[in-house]
Structures are given as structure tokens and as C-alpha cells.
């Protein structure tokens, strides 16, 4: 039985699912499979016979192609190949569309593998689409390593094709779903999936025949962005190195732009204190706490005079012994802190305490030292001589005389007059009443408020009215009736508790009793007054004593006190006394004095000018002085020199008018300057300041010629008489006082005291005698120490007070008066604040002075020059500083180093290199050199190089430091870089021009040029100190010619002193922060007993045989500071660590970044090359592998197809034969037709 040939073409047009239709049988095949086998068998017989007859088929049909002998491909094979080519083109198009849907499946199909990724693709929901199912199985043969690359190969799975032969029917009989591997069929119009056969169908590539090969494989080239293997590793490292290089280059740019600025801002924020809320405010405001190991030490050395007596009295050359050091550690605190509104300025007063450090000192504070006494020498120098000192003291004597006249003599006169008037009135009343047989004690009873019976039941009580007595009084007494009644009326009455008993009245009248109301006794030594003075004073304590003494009550006491006060202050009493005084004078003098003696004060001036008030009122025969031992009144001087003011023998007057005396006396007390320059004729010092002193700003400072001319013009030779009178007072009153209070109390030209007394202060006798009692300069000291570092009001509210001479840096602006707001009394003198730049907005001005004690220009302190404060350094041409520093802070951020001149600029080296030893710098010797001992000294320190000052080198001075103690700026110049505790510092030394008369401003400080005797190595402080005083290096180090002066032959030095003096003056500044981390400032102060100035001192009273020395070394001081180990480590951590990191970044980031980026780029290029090479090799291997596998598969498939066709043919033939046999048998056994 043969099938029509057209069945092949119709079958090829069926959809892919047609082969799956039919119901599944128990043997595992469907009915459709059986039908197709039958059809294929029939077709094979027919085609085989046709093709076999040509002799070209390779196998032909089993039944009819035996005679052909295999001469060529059978017709079915040619049709199959054509169908395969056609289907392959269709599938290639579909695979292009599905490459983006299931790329993994397609890739793995190309490699001929089925991996886990393929299963994942099949499980994806998108794989259930019909388009994805067509690509899933073919994807199982691709290499998993290329699953991210979409291949466009044409090796696609044939989802269905026409069964034109038994071979095609056998492969199309069972189709495998690409997504779920289930067999798909319909059962009664319902689709279902069943398990596939045990052996899956081979891939369609085996269907390609040898004669008709598929199109060559067309793979996309592998992208270099997705390498694998070594290429992938190279690519990863390339990316890493490129990123590292890019980051390093970015960091390199930041290290030269943002990072340095950020570091600078961080450091500046820690340094700048612009308000109380600043982070560093607490540490800035006080160094009192022991939180730092960087101490500030001050060492004191004294040149003790070993032969003071021969030096003072025999003109012997002084011999000196250097004692010291006496070392103190300084602690400080800021008070009265005030910030400006914008935070750029801050004002404060610095409180200082000094603690003795015995372990570093060469002696104890109890050591006795004999020194040249600066306060005494200053007084002599100011007044020209010791005689001038005595004459100037006359003003003080006149002041005391005024006190004696008006506060002692005048009250005494008034008290005596009141008592005289009262006792006279009582006596007169008793005498007049006795004429009427009045009771003997009647006046006393009535004075005490009692009543006296006079008969006819009439009682006389008190003295409220005495008009009835006018009849018994004479005419003169009647003129004084008002005074008499005032003396008798006590305002008491007979009321119980008011009247005073007779015995008490008699006790009150007892003039021998010191508490009596009529007692006028006074103690001549203490000037204490008793009796009536106690009643007038009305002191509560004395009141109780008086009441108990006389057994009176308070009412009685008050009545008596009012009685005596009214009498004391009564104008009637004043009129009576003046009348009595004038009546007692000789007629000629009385006539002259009548217009002058008009009040109590006139009696005082009469006593000073004429000296007869005590004589007249006390009825003495000769004039009496208020100070009988040494009469100070002008009248007694004129009597002594043969110019009597009154000739009692002839009755002629030869005295000054009282107005002239009063004018001169008051003028003498108006101003010390006026008194000294106009009255005494002492020339003004050449260093006279045009500004008033701090303690007496209201006093006159210029001579007044007009008043003295008016006073002296009223009498012949009045000025000459007055000058003689002043000398009289000077040598008779002032000299004994000076000897007693100054010379004999260890206050002369040479003084022996303990070290503690010299340093911490004691009341200087000459200052105590000459200054006002509240003047802080009375307590003289070389070292200032505040009583506390925490004054009332706290850090921001307290005030520092001037309490000793060291606090008075200058007599003009250093201190100011503090007065009580209600009483106006002076409560003390407070220190005036300095103003500094905080560094806010202007970091280059950090720590520099803006004003000194309120002055932006200090004038009047140095009389010949003005010291600029505001912007001083900048105005002087400085490129480093805006103004003066106080030595602890200079402009930060390396400004000091950058501004130095190129020829001396420090070689730029990285911060921190000194700490790790990469740069060999000279080490700054630590302060251990100050440890006292007799060990070996560093010989390098003792090498002395003579200093030569060159005025042309002034522009080399770069740093300016202001010394408040001397109101003087000092200049420093660069020396060398050094290291201290691993910190790189710039060392600046004191300018050689400091002590040179060649300095540009030498004339402003009264320094003589060298050709007129000026000496190198000495700075003249005379104008500031108002005495011959000089500043020099300790031991005159660097100026050996000075030590050869005759007056210094007796000078010897200690080993420790010589070592410290040789250290010199320097500042070691850390350039980045601008802080001074090592310093040593040492200066020596010397006096003189002779000087080249025109107003030189003359020791002409007590020290007229003193040795005339041009220089007398007295004391030298050295302030030393260095950063301690703990603070140095902190500095390293905060500054150098960041600097080192930044330096490393700047040094290596560019090179390392460039190298890393270049390496990364090379690796990326290498990875692309490796990826391409690997892909080329892979494609080649795949092509060769597929070609070989395809040929083998085709041969195997053809062989298998032959066998299967043969088996199918045999099976079909057998089945057909069986059917035929069955039909034959059925027909044979079928019943006959009816």
C-alpha cells in the first residue's frame, strides 16, 4: 500500500504541535506516531524504488532501491537537506529576535553545554513564551563562560518540519518543549503535557549533510569591558590602580589647596581667643593651674658691696661679690578682661605671682645683700643734691606747720578763749552778787540749773536773764553783757533729772581734772588735748566715760555739750578775743594790726609772722612759739638772723604784712614743682615730663611766677629773707628728721637688707618721708607680686591694684586713682589695662600691642621721644609684624620665615624633619644649664665675642619686643635655625645696636655720641628713672672694654652667673604657630655716683666722701622659658603629625598617583588585548570542535537513520504483512454473506 507523494509537502506545512497530537497509549506512543510511521514506511518504499533505479542513492528505499547500488543521495535526502537549509534560515531570524530574551540559553547552546544557568533561563517566566521555547534547547549547547554575550549563529533548533520520509518522521514524532521538557498533546480538545521519551532527540545540527553545510558561524567579538580569566583579573587590577591613582592626584591637588587652609584654620581657631566663649579661653586667661611643664623662670643676681663704709666715707673703690641666682617660677592670670564688639581687640590686666624655687637657686631669701640704693639716689638726682633734698623737705615741713597752726594752734586758741571767757564771766558774776550778800555758791547752783532763795519766797533759777545786773556792771562789762550771759546760761532748770548738784558743778569747774569742761591741757609729745576738747569732740566712748566720772545723765551731758559748743563757735567770743588781743598790743602795732587781725585765721598768720599771739593771750612777757623747742615761725627766724619783726625797745615795727605771709605760705604748698623751681630755685630736671603724675593729676606742673612776684613785692628783700628762712627750716627741722627716719633706719645711699626684702618690697624710708601716705611707690621692690591671682569678681570682674613700686611701670599712665563714689576719697590705685590684637580677621596681628595703658602713642614717659604702639613695627618698615609683641607671640603661619630677607632666609625644610633626624640642626641648650653646681661648665658658652654695632645693619632687625618695665621696644635679628625637643625653631638674637650710642634714636634717650664720651654696651635709662641708671648685658658680656673701667676693677662673678650671662639674649620662635618656645632675656641695671649730665647728683651732706663711680653694678635679671617635654609631645601630636601627613601627601601623592593611574591604564589595555585573544582562541576551538562534532554527528545520524529506516521498514512490512494475513484470515473465516 503506497501513500500519495503529496503527503510530504502537506506534512511540512503543519504547525510544530501537530506531531504532538493524539492520545498516549500504554506502550508510550501515540496514535499519531503509528500513522506517521506507516506513512513514512510507504513513502520510503516508493521513493526508494524511484531513486534506487538511478544508481545514485546511498541507500534508497529498503524495499525498492536495492538495485541502485548507492550512486547518490536519494530523493528524500535531497528534500530533507533543502528543508533543513530553509528551516535554518527561519530559525536564525527567530534566534536574533530571542537573543535579548534568553541570552544565556543561546550562549550555552553555542557551547553545546547544558548548565545550571540554562535551567534558570527555562524557569524564568519569560521562557514560557513560544519565542523563548524555540531557543531553550539549542542554548543548552553553549559555553557557560560566554553567557553574557549574545551570539547570532544560525545553529537553531527546528521546532517542526515536514515528515517527507521515514527519517524525518522518526525525528518529528516526538517534540521536546524547550521550557519545561514535557510532551505536549491534546486530548479531546484539551492540551496537556506528558513526560518525554527516555532518549531526547539529538540537536538539529546533525541533520546537516556533508554536501550541504550550514552558513559559517558569525559570533560577535568579545567586549574588552567584560573579560574573563586572566583578562578579567587584569581588568580588575587596572580599575583598582586607576581609581587609586585618580584619588592620589585629587589628594595631591587638595594638599596644595584645601588641606593646608583647613589645617591653618584649625590651628588658628585653637590659638585665637576673641570672646569668653572661645574654646581656649580658660587656658588663655590663667596659667595659675599646674597644667603645663613649660615654666617661665626669673633669675635674680645681686652685686653685693663688700666694703660699704670705706666706699661711702673714704672714697674707696667698691668691691663686689655676685650672689645668686635666686630663681622664681612665674604664674599669671588675666583680670578686667574686655573684648571689643567685633572680637579683634582685647584689654586686660595681668596679675603675677612668683614662687621661689630653692632647688634651682644659689642661696636663700634670708641672705643679706648690700646694694646701691636706687630710691635714695633717685631722690638726690631729682633734687640735684642732698641739700636740695633738705630744701625740698621744707615744703613738707611747711605742710606740717600748717597742720600745727590750723589744726592744733587755732583750736587751742579758741578753746582757751572759751574757757577764759566762761571763767571770767563766772568770776565777775560772783564778785558782783557778793555785793548783795548773795550766797557764796549761788552762782554755781544757778549755773547748774538750780534755784537760790533770796528771801520773800523769791528764788533765782538759772541765768536766762541778767538785765538786772546792768546796774552793777561797769561800762566795759556792759559791752560784753551778751557774752557774759552766753557764758552763764547752760539751759538747765530745776526739773528733777535736769538740775546738776552743786558738788557736780564744782567738779566740772575743776581745771585740774582732765575731763573738766574748763580743762585746756594738751600733751606736748602727742599733741593730745583734754578737757574742753573732749566735750567738743563728743566722742561716744568718751561721753560714757564723762557721764560716769561726773555722775550725770544724758540730758545733763547734752545740755553741757551744747553750752560749750555754742560758746566755742560764737562770733561774740571771736569779737571779744580779737578786741582783747588788739588792746594788749603797743599802740603803734595795734594801729597797724587793726585792719589785719579781723578773724581767728588772722591770729594764726600773726603768730607765724610776728610770734606774739601766745604771748598776748597767755600774758607772757616775751613772744612764745607754738613749738618752743625749735621755733618754726618766720618771726623767730628773723629774730635769730638780726631782723626782728618788732623792736620793743623803740616801739618800731619791722615785719611782713600778714597778707604777704599768707600769700607766700599758700603758694609754697600749692605745687611741689612750683615750690622747687620757683621758690627754691632748683633747676628742672632735663627729663621733666610734660604730663601730670598718676597720683596727683590735678596738681600744677608748671611754675607760677605771678603769685610769687605779688607776694614778694610787698617787702624789701622778701625773697632773700624767704630763701634764708627755707634753709633755716631745712637744716634745723628737715635734716634731723631725715637723719632719724632715713639715714639711721638703713635708707641711705648704700643699704643692707635680705634678698626677700629687696625682691618682694619694704617701705623705703626716703619714699615714705617724701611721698603721700597712699602712694604705692613707698613699697619699693625689684619684683612685682600680686596678693592673689583670683581677685574679687573673678577672672573677668576683678581689678589689679598698684601696691608697690614695681607695679608703677611709669609715673604717668601705669596706675590711676580709684575714688569712693559717695565720699570721693581715694581708695587706692588700680593698674591700667593694655590692649592687644586677638588675631581675629587679622591673624598676622595675633598677640601684638594695640595700646599701652591706653596710649597708642606713649608720650611724656620718655621726655624727649614718643614711643609708637599702634602699628609701630609696620610703620618702621617691618614685613613681619604689625606692632610690638611682648615676646611670647609673633605672627603665625610661617609669616616670620617668609618675610625674612632672601639672603638670610632659612632653607625650606619640612616641619617635623627635625624631630625624626632627617635634618641636622643645632640643638638649643635646655634650661638645665641653670642648675646650680660646681661641675664643669660648657666652655662653648663662655667664649666671648666682642659686639660690634653697625648702623647700616639696622634693616636686619626683624622682630620687635616691647618691655613694659622700661617702656622700651627692643629689636631682634635672625641668627640660625635650631631644634628644641624635636621642634624646629628660628633663633633671633638681640640687635647689637641696642646698647650702642650709634643707634638712630640715641639722642632721644640722652645717649652721648661716642666722640663725646658715649660708651658701647650701655643704654641710658636716666630719663626714665630720673637718676643716673644704665642698662647693659649681664657682666657687660660682649663688651670687654667696659670691664676694664677703673670703677669696675673690684667686680667678680660667680660661675653660675658667668654661664648664664654668656647665654645672651635670644628668642626661639616656632614659625608655624609664631609662639616663642625658647627664650632668654637678661639685662643688668647699674647706678652711678657721678654723671656727665649737667644736673648730676651731689652728695654734699651725709655722703660727701663717697667714691665717684661712673658705673655701680647693682642687679641683673634673666627671664628664661622653654617648652617642656609634655607640651612638646602635645605640640608634635597637634601640629607636626598633621604637618608630616600633609608633607607626605604632597611629596608622594603626585608620583604615586601618576604611577598608579598609568599602571591602571596599561592593565586595562592589557585586559582588552587578553579578552580579544581569548575570544579568538575560543572561537577557533569552538569552530574546530563543532566542525568535527558535526561531521561525526552527521555520519552517526545517517548510519542510525539507515538502521532505523531499515528497522522501521521491516517493522512496517511486518505489520503490513500481519494486517494482510489477518485480513486474509478474517476473510477466510468470515461467515458467508447473507
Write a brief structural summary.
By secondary structure, the chain is an alpha+beta fold. 40% of the residues lie in helices and 13% in strands. Strands 3, 4, 5, 16, 17, 20, 21, 22, 23, 24, 25, 26, 27 and 28 form a 14-stranded mixed beta sheet that branches. A two-stranded antiparallel ribbon has the order 1-2.
Question: What ranges have pLDDT less than 50 throughout 5 or more consecutive residues?
Answer: 1-72, 101-227, 698-705, 791-797, 905-918, 932-940
Summed over residues and divided by their number, the pLDDT gives a mean of 76
Q: Largest beta sheet, briefly?
A: 14 strands, mixed
Strand residues, percent:
5-15%
Radius of gyration equals 64 Å
Q: Which structural class do the helices and strands define?
A: alpha+beta
Number of strands: 28
What is the multimeric organization of the chains shown? single chain
Query: Globular, elongated, flat, extended or rod-shaped: what is the shape?
Result: elongated
> How many DSSP H or I helices?
38
Give the termini distance in whole angstroms. 30 Å
Helix fraction, binned, reads 40-55%
Amino acid at each position: 500500500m503506497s501513500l500519495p507523494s503529496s503527503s510530504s509537502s502537506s506534512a511540512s506545512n503543519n504547525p510544530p504541535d501537530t506531531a504532538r497530537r493524539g492520545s498516549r497509549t500504554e506502550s508510550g506512543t501515540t496514535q499519531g506516531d503509528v500513522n506517521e510511521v506507516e506513512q513514512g514506511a510507504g513513502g520510503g518504499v516508493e521513493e526508494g524504488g524511484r531513486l534506487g533505479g538511478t544508481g545514485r542513492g546511498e541507500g534508497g528505499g529498503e524495499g525498492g532501491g536495492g538495485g541502485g547500488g548507492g550512486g547518490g543521495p536519494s530523493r528524500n535526502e535531497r528534500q530533507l537537506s533543502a528543508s533543513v537549509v530553509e528551516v535554518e534560515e527561519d530559525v536564525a531570524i527567530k534566534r536574533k529576535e530571542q537573543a535579548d530574551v534568553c541570552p544565556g540559553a543561546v550562549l550555552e547552546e553555542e557551547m553545546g553545554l547544558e548548565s545550571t544557568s540554562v535551567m534558570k533561563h527555562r524557569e524564568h517566566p519569560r521562557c514560557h513564551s513560544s519565542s523563548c521555547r524555540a531557543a531553550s534547547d539549542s542554548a543548552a549547547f553553549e559555553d557557560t563562560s560566554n553567557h553574557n554575550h549574545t551570539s547570532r549563529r544560525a545553529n537553531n533548533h527546528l521546532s517542526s518540519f515536514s515528515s517527507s520520509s521515514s527519517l524525518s518522521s522518526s525525528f518529528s514524532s516526538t517534540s521536546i518543549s524547550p521550557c519545561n521538557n514535557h510532551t505536549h498533546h491534546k486530548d479531546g480538545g484539551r492540551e496537556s503535557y506528558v513526560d518525554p521519551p527516555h532518549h531526547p532527540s539529538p540537536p538539529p545540527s546533525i541533520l546537516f549533510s556533508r554536501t550541504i553545510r550550514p552558513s559559517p558561524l558569525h559570533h560577535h567579538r568579545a567586549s574588552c569591558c567584560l573579560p574573563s580569566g586572566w583578562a578579567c583579573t587584569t581588568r580588575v587590577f587596572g580599575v583598582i590602580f586607576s581609581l587609586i591613582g585618580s584619588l592620589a592626584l585629587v589628594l595631591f591637588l587638595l594638599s596644595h589647596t584645601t588641606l593646608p587652609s583647613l589645617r591653618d584654620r584649625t590651628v588658628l581657631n585653637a590659638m585665637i581667643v576673641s570672646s569668653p566663649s572661645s574654646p581656649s579661653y580658660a587656658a588663655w586667661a590663667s596659667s595659675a593651674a599646674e597644667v603645663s611643664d613649660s615654666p617661665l623662670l626669673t633669675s635674680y643676681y645681686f652685686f653685693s658691696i663688700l666694703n660699704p663704709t670705706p666706699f661711702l666715707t673714704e672714697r674707696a673703690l667698691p668691691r663686689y661679690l655676685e650672689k645668686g641666682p635666686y630663681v622664681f617660677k612665674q604664674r599669671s592670670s588675666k583680670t578686667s578682661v574686655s573684648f571689643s564688639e567685633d572680637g579683634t581687640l582685647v584689654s586686660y590686666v595681668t596679675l603675677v605671682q612668683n614662687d621661689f624655687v630653692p632647688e634651682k637657686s644659689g642661696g636663700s631669701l634670708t641672705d643679706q645683700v648690700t646694694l646701691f640704693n636706687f630710691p635714695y639716689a633717685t631722690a638726690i638726682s631729682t633734687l640735684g643734691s642732698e641739700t636740695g633734698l633738705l630744701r625740698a623737705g621744707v615744703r613738707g615741713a611747711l605742710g606740717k606747720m600748717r597742720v600745727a597752726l590750723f589744726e592744733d594752734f587755732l583750736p587751742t586758741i579758741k578753746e582757751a578763749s572759751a574757757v577764759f571767757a566762761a571763767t571770767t564771766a563766772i568770776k565777775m558774776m560772783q564778785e558782783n552778787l557778793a555785793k548783795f550778800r548773795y550766797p557764796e555758791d549761788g552762782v554755781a547752783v544757778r549755773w547748774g540749773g538750780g534755784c537760790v532763795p533770796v528771801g520773800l519766797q523769791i528764788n533765782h533759777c538759772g541765768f536766762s536773764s541778767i538785765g538786772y545786773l546792768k546796774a552793777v556792771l561797769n561800762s566795759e562789762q556792759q559791752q560784753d553783757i551778751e557774752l557774759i550771759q552766753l557764758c552763764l546760761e547752760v539751759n538747765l532748770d530745776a526739773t528733777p533729772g535736769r538740775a546738776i548738784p552743786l558738788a557736780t558743778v564744782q567738779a566740772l569747774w575743776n581745771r585740774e581734772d582732765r575731763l573738766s569742761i574748763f580743762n585746756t591741757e594738751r600733751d606736748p609729745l602727742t599733741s593730745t588735748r583734754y578737757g574742753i576738747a573732749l566735750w567738743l569732740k563728743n566722742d561716744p566712748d568718751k561721753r560714757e566715760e564723762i557721764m560716769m566720772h561726773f555722775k550725770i545723765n544724758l540730758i545733763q551731758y547734752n545740755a553741757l555739750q551744747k553750752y560749750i559748743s555754742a560758746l566755742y563757735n560764737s562770733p561774740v567770743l571771736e569779737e571779744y578775743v580779737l578786741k582783747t588781743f588788739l588792746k594788749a598790743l603797743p599802740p603803734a602795732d595795734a594801729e597797724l594790726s587793726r585792719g589785719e587781725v579781723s578773724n581767728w585765721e588772722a591770729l594764726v598768720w600773726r603768730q607765724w609772722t610776728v610770734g606774739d599771739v601766745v604771748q598776748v593771750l597767755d600774758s607772757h612777757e616775751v613772744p612764745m612759739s607754738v613749738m618752743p623747742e625749735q621755733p618754726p615761725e618766720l618771726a623767730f627766724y628773723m629774730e635769730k638772723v638780726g631782723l626782728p619783726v618788732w623792736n620793743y625797745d623803740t616801739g618800731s615795727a619791722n615785719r611782713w604784712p600778714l597778707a604777704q605771709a599768707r600769700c607766700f605760705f599758700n603758694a609754697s604748698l600749692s605745687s611741689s614743682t612750683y615750690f622747687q623751681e620757683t621758690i627754691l630755685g632748683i633747676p628742672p630736671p632735663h627729663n621733666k615730663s610734660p604730663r601730670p603724675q598718676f597720683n596727683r593729676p590735678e596738681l600744677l606742673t608748671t611754675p607760677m611766677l605771678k603769685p610769687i612776684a605779688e607776694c614778694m613785692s610787698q617787702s624789701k628783700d622778701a625773697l632773700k629773707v624767704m630763701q634764708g628762712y627755707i634753709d633755716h627750716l631745712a637744716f634745723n627741722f628737715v635734716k634731723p628728721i631725715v637723719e632719724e627716719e632715713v639715714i639711721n633706719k638703713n635708707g641711705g645711699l648704700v643699704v643692707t637688707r635680705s634678698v626677700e626684702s629687696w625682691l618682694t618690697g619694704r617701705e623705703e624710708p626716703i619714699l615714705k618721708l617724701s611721698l603721700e601716705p597712699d602712694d604705692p611707690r613707698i613699697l619699693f621692690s625689684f619684683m612685682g607680686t600680686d596678693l592673689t591671682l583670683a581677685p574679687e569678681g573673678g577672672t573677668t570682674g576683678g581689678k589689679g591694684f598698684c601696691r608697690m613700686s614695681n607695679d608703677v611701670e611709669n609715673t604717668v599712665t601705669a596706675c590711676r586713682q580709684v575714688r569712693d563714689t559717695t565720699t570721693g576719697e581715694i581708695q587706692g590705685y588700680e593698674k591700667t589695662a593694655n590692649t592687644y590684637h586677638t588675631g581675629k580677621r587679622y591673624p598676622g596681628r595675633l598677640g601684638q600691642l594695640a595700646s599701652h595703658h591706653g596710649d597708642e602713642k606713649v608720650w611724656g614717659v620718655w621726655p624727649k621721644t614718643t614711643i609708637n604702639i599702634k602699628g609701630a613695627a609696620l610703620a618702621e618698615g617691618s614685613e613681619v609684624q604689625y606692632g610690638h609683641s611682648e615676646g611670647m607671640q609673633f605672627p603665625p603661619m610661617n609669616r616670620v620665615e617668609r618675610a625674612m630677607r632672601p639672603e638670610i632666609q632659612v632653607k625650606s625644610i619640612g616641619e617635623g624633619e627635625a624631630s625624626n633626624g632627617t635634618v641636622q640642626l643645632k640643638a638649643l641648650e635646655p634650661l638645665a644649664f641653670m642648675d646650680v653646681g660646681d661641675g664643669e661648665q660648657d666652655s662653648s658658652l663662655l667664649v666671648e665675642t666682642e659686639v660690634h654695632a653697625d648702623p647700616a645693619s639696622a634693616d636686619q632687625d626683624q622682630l620687635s619686643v616691647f618691655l613694659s618695665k622700661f617702656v622700651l621696644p627692643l629689636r631682634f635679628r635672625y641668627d640660625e635655625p635650631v631644634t628644641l625637643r624635636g621642634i624646629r625653631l628660628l633663633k633671633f638674637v638681640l640687635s647689637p645696636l641696642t646698647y650702642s650710642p650709634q643707634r638712630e634714636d640715641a639722642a632721644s634717650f640722652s645717649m652721648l655720641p661716642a666722640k663725646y664720651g658715649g660708651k658701647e654696651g650701655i643704654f641710658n635709662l636716666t630719663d626714665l628713672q630720673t637718676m643716673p641708671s644704665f642698662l647693659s648685658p649681664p657682666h657687660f658680656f660682649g663688651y670687654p672694654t667696659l670691664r676694664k673701667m677703673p670703677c669696675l676693677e673690684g667686680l667678680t662673678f660667680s660661675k653660675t652667673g658667668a654661664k648664664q650671662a654668656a647665654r645672651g639674649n635670644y628668642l626661639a620662635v616656632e614659625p608655624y604657630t609664631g609662639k616663642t618656645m625658647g627664650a632668654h632675656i637678661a639685662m643688668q641695671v647699674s647706678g652711678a655716683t657721678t654723671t656727665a649730665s649737667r644736673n648730676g647728683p651731689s652728695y654734699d651732706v651725709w655722703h660727701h666722701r663717697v667714691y665717684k663711680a661712673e658705673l655701680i653694678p647693682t642687679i641683673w635679671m634673666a627671664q628664661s622659658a622653654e617648652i617642656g617635654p609634655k607640651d612638646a609631645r602635645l605640640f608634635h601630636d597637634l601640629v607636626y603629625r598633621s604637618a608630616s601627613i600633609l608633607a607626605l601627601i604632597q611629596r608622594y601623592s603626585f608620583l604615586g598617583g601618576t604611577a598608579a593611574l598609568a599602571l591602571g591604564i596599561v592593565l586595562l589595555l592589557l585586559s582588552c588585548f587578553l579578552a580579544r585573544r581569548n575570544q579568538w582562541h575560543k572561537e577557533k576551538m569552538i569552530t574546530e570542535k563543532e566542525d568535527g562534532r558535526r561531521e561525526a554527528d552527521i555520519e552517526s545520524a545517517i548510519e542510525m537513520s539507515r538502521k532505523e529506516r531499515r528497522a522501521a521498514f521491516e517493522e512496517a512490512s511486518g505489520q503490513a504483512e500481519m494486517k494482510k494475513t489477518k485480513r486474509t484470515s478474517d476473510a477466510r473465516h468470515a461467515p458467508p454473506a447473507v
